[in-house]
Amino acid sequence: MFDFLEGYDVLAAFWLTIKLTVFSAVGSLVWGTMLAAMRVSPVPLMRGFGTAYVNIVRNIPLTVIIVFTSLGLADIFGMTMGASHDFNLQGFRLAVLGLVAYTAAFVCESIRSGINTVPLGQAEAARAIGLSFSQTLRLVILPQAFRSVIGPLTNVLIALTKNTTVAAAIGVAEAAFLMKEMIENEAQTLAIGAVFALGFVVLTLPTGLLLGWLGKRLAVKR
Amino acid sequence: MSSVLYDAPGPRAKRRNVLLSILFFVLLALLLWWLWEKMDDKNQLEWALWEPFTTSQAWTTYLLPGLADTMKAAALSMIIALPLGAFLGISRMSDHRWVRVPAGAVVEFFRAIPVLLLMLFANELYVRSSDISSEDRPMYAVVTGLVLYNASVLAEVVRAGILALPKGQTEAAFAIGLRKGQTMTSILLPQAVTAMLPAIVSQLVVIVKDTALGGVMLGFTELLNARSTLAANYANVVPSFIVVALIFIVVNFILTSFASWLEGRLRRSKRGTGAVLAPDDVEDNPAAIPGSYGTGQAV
Q1: What homologous superfamily is domain B52-288 in, according to CATH?
Q2: In whole angstroms, what is the distance from residue B228 CA to residue B176 CA?
Q3: Interhelix angle B97-112/A189-218, nearest 10 degrees
Q4: What parts of the sequence cross the membrane (chain B) (predicted)?
Q5: pLDDT value at position B270?
Q6: Does the predicted model carry a pTM greater than 0.80?
Q7: CA A111, CA A116: separation in Å to the nearest integer?
Q8: Residues 83-112 in A contacting B (C-alpha not used; CB under 8 Å)
Q9: Residue A137's domain is classified under what CATH number?
Q10: Which of A59, A152, A204 sits opposite B285 (nearest CB)?
């Protein structure tokens, strides 16, 4: 019944999907946090840059960004990401770059909205009892902000997992790329679709349930 | 700007802020200068590459038809997905377990898998078991994928919209003797639709962005696809990417602004219950919807 799987390495394709997700998640968390720090900083120029970046990147389709990394950055500007002879590795790294640039805008917005859920009264109360600036931030505000950020960040992570399929557009051999190949060459359209759909359900649903539950549990009840 | 993170600046903080501003400005200027140099280095700033965009031919033969296809697919998907989403969302709130559970399963399933997979699958299905011409097929496949995905996202929007209404609405409807179905169709749904409008418009942004997938993977002749034909003709890869990105930014920015204008208008309006579903309520925070842990969307 599952003989259509023969000759195709489905697990390897999903492993590449997972690798894309993990690398992009780490990268976009770092870059997104930096952007969020800029967006809430007291320096107007930094705020402006953060706002501009988020508004521009959020409105461009991810597909445009990913295809540009390949046709523009690699082919025209010669950005080979340190892998000029390994085409597969180069595609992978370019896809991660595109995913990080795109996802960071959403990470930034999630973190910022998390910070905004902390009421102004918390900071005022902290100052009123004589805490210094760093104490206010360290002991009162950030702990509350981090906890309310988990839920929104989970959604970004799940969306990122699904967005890694866009890397197929530049020939990264992840799950969607393999599915396209298989579905065109094999007869069992429905079964192939079901296998890949199941793969993504397995990747996204438990993450959503677990982190969603955690986010709800840890969120500050107001 | 007052923020929970810092006080109004005193003299020292002001000095520091100015210093940081200057430092950041220099860094930014260096970055821009470096980008400009890079572009110049690869001859991407030559007027010959940009000139086509000042002629009407580039727009009428490539970009505008592409944009029209993008908008057509997005509008069709939204129009089909809305009633389907409303149906799924209401089914999910049914009192009957045998309606609620399957509807919930369908919604969670289609939200959990990437929209690209749905498009690829629909495309292959149409190849094998329909006689849609190969010219129209990409469009059908793109719309099918987008409808399946967005109907399940909109189902959650509808549910959140109905749940956002004050409880008194349902109670009052029951008190004057309306049945469950009547309460839904003549009391809750009309009010919820108003409350949902901003969220629906901002979902349109997501749909517009997702049509680009069909351009690359299925050969649907939308804007990104039109770009590659244009670039093949004028040999201006980088400028064409920049122009297409700008078009997407403008279109989506208009939609986003419209959504927030609608939201503000609804919040201010004296009529109605004051229940508004901001775009972010559903996008970023499905945890706000009771009973939903969310499978992430809108990104």
Answers
A1: MetI-like (1.10.3720.10)
A2: 61
A3: 100
A4: 18-36, 73-91, 103-122, 142-166, 187-208, 237-262
A5: 67
A6: yes
A7: 9
A8: 103, 106, 109-110
A9: 1.10.3720.10
A10: A152
